[in-house]
Amino acid sequence: MKLAINQHATRINDNSRYIFGREEFAVNLKNIFTNTDGGFVLAIDATWGEGKTSFIHQLIHDLKCSDKLIPIYYDAFSNDFSSDTFLSIGATISYEVENHFQKNGLKTKNTKQIEHLKSVTKKTAMELVKLGTNLAVKSLTAGMVDSSDLEKFAGNAFNSAAFGTLELDINKKFEAYENSKDSIQYYVKALEGVCAENEKVVFFVDELDRCRPDFAVEVLEKIKHLFHAKNVIFVISYNKTQLSRIISNVYGVDTEDSLKYLEKFIHIEANLPTLDNEYQKNSYELLFNNFISEFNIPLSSDELQLNMLQEMFISLCSDKHLKMNGREIERAFSYVSFCFASLPQSKGRELFKFFLPAAMIKIKNRKQFEIIKKGSFNSLSVDSNKWMYDFFKQYYSDSLVQNASNVYYVKGLEEACAIVSIFKLPTEAESVDKI
Description:
This protein is α/β, with parallel strands linked by helices. Helix content is 57%, strand content 10%. The longest helix is centred in the first third of the chain and has 25 residues, at 108-132.
């Protein structure tokens, strides 16, 4: 059993099944990428947990079937250790472009162009080292800049006291600045040259609203240097509200000005389509199976019991009950795996059907969790909680103890809630205080 899974798990479906009925949106985007000339920047906006990353990974999987589109994924959160975003972006592009042509059968012409792109990337890296004395280039450029080259240059730079001291030679710094601009232009031309047969690079930037604030701004500032490349399309996935707050904090401006700042980079914006009710059942069913598999939860092989658990899970996720998004569901399963692992496996299996609703309700609504954690349900509850009485009566009829005509008790749920209560997310303390 796993206690945690990769939050960036791709969960690719080979049959191009998009959860929450987003196939049409994906087809629209693919047509835009294919039918337009020149580069542009598209933003996909959605709130936390709505499935931006999952959608992008599925779209990238489908775009890879095209010979003319080269999709590239850049995770800003995973790369924010870098002090030079341009280099990490350039290295990612070079690596993925080479992979694309290798998979599709490298031609001699492609080989030469890719080697030229690597060479220009290296030269650009060296010029940026001169400008910023960034000695971490080797790791950021996937090994394309040899460490001996860096050491030789850095040693000369510091020995001559040309950078970072009062003896700084302004002419050299000016020259380095001009050279870095020229190098970026050469890089853009080299990137265009790789795609000599009208291929397009579709560069997806994800997790900008989760990474280090200054790094998020740096990513935007650096990719703007590539906006003029005629064969590069940028797709920026973000929560615009959150990213605008980040920009406000970094630059000390108000929300209106931070949104104007974003407008400098974005040509057009699209909202990620919300859940289509027609696909609700199939989507939640897919998520249930994925998370059971990814967390490696050792459930009973009883098919009837598994079907009941899945049906119960889908009902809880639905709009009429908890209305949970993908990230909330993932956190609920993480709770369940910790609870399961804390018990003998036989006891864990016994309580699993109670762990799951307990964890889901705790994640979504702490007030409702406080109501159910003693295992008692009253049919006279206020309207907002009445559904829980009906829900547990429907799915746990074999576990009910009737205490009165309108009150019943579920011992297994009380046990499960007691164990679930041991664990909490770092953000939960504040919400508990408000109850």
